[in-house]
C-alpha cells in the first residue's frame, strides 16, 4: 500500500503587548490565530501569557500559560524555560530549553521538552534577519521520544523601542510517528512594548 506525502499550508498571525513593570521582570500577553490554508479553516486560537525574569545579562528564565481553542476543545498549557543569549558583534546566538505540560488525558496537546537554537544578524538598527531550529521530545503515556522539529527563517523590523514586526516562514515536521504531519507556515507578528 502506498501513501502520498502531504504537506499542509498555514498562516499564523499574532499581536501582543510587553511590559517591564520592575527591573528585570517582563510580562507578555498575546493573541494568536492559526489558519490552515489547505482546508481553508481557522483551526486554532491561542491566548498566551508569560512572565520572564532576567537572571543576568545572558540568562533569563520564565513561566508561561496558553489557553487554546482547537477542534472544538479548550485546552490549557503551562511551561517553564531557561534561555541564554550571546552577542557576537552584529550576530546574536540564543539557546532555549523549555518544559511544557498540558493536563489532557493522553498528554498529546503539548506535554514535551523543547530545545531551540536561533541566530540573528542586525543589518542596521531596524532590521534583523534570523534563522532557528527546534526539537520536540514528547512525554506522555503514548509517546516518549523525539517526534517533531521546526525550522524557521524570518525578518524582525523594529523601527523604535515600542514597536516590533516579524514575518517568517516556518517548516514543522513530525517524525517517529505513524502518518506524520508536515506544515509550511507563513507567520506575521506585531508586539507593542511599553
Q: What do you see in this structure?
A:
- The chain has 194 residues and is mostly beta strands.
- It has one domain (8-193): monomeric porin ompg (Porin), CATH 2.40.160.
- The chain has strands spanning 8-22, 25-36, 41-54, 59-70, 73-88, 91-101, 112-121, 127-139, 144-160, 163-174, 182-193.
- An 11-stranded mixed beta barrel has the order 1-2-3-4-5-6-7-8-9-10-11.
- The N and C termini lie far apart (57 Å).
The parts where pLDDT drops under 50 for at least 5 residues are none
Largest sheet: 11 strands, mixed, barrel
Q: How does the overall form come out from the CA principal axes?
A: globular
Q: What is the N-to-C order of secondary-structure elements (H for helix, E for strand)?
A: EEEEEEEEEEE
- The CATH architecture assignment turns out to be Beta Barrel
- Per CATH, what is the topology? Porin
Tally of individual domains: 1
Q: Average pLDDT value?
A: 91
Strand tally: 11
The chain-level structural class is mainly beta
Strand fraction = over 45%
Q: What is the name of the CATH class? A: Mainly Beta
- Distance from N terminus to C terminus (CA atoms, Å) equals 57 Å
Spatial strand order of the main sheet: 1-2-3-4-5-6-7-8-9-10-11
Fraction of residues in H or I helices: under 10%
Q: Give the radius of gyration.
A: 17 Å
Amino acid at each position: 500500500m502506498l501513501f502520498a506525502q502531504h504537506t499542509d499550508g498555514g498562516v499564523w498571525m499574532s499581536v501582543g503587548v510587553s511590559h517591564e513593570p520592575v527591573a528585570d521582570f517582563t510580562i507578555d500577553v498575546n493573541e494568536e490565530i492559526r489558519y490552515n490554508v489547505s482546508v481553508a479553516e481557522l483551526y486554532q486560537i491561542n491566548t498566551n501569557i508569560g512572565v520572564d525574569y532576567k537572571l543576568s545579562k545572558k540568562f533569563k528564565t520564565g513561566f508561561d500559560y496558553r489557553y487554546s481553542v482547537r477542534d472544538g476543545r479548550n485546552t490549557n498549557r503551562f511551561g517553564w524555560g531557561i534561555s541564554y543569549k550571546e552577542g557576537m558583534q552584529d550576530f546574536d546566538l540564543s539557546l532555549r530549553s523549555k518544559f511544557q505540560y498540558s493536563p489532557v488525558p493522553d498528554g498529546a496537546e503539548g506535554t514535551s521538552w523543547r530545545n531551540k537554537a536561533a541566530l540573528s544578524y542586525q543589518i542596521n538598527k531596524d532590521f534583523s534577519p534570523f534563522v532557528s531550529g527546534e526539537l520536540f521530545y514528547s512525554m506522555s503515556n503514548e509517546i516518549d521520544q523525539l517526534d517533531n522539529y521546526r525550522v524557521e527563517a524570518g525578518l524582525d523590523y523594529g523601527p523604535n523601542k515600542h514597536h516590533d514586526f516579524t514575518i517568517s516562514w516556518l517548516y514543522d515536521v513530525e517524525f517517529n510517528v505513524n502518518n506524520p504531519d508536515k506544515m509550511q507556515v507563513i507567520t506575521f507578528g506585531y508586539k507593542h512594548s511599553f
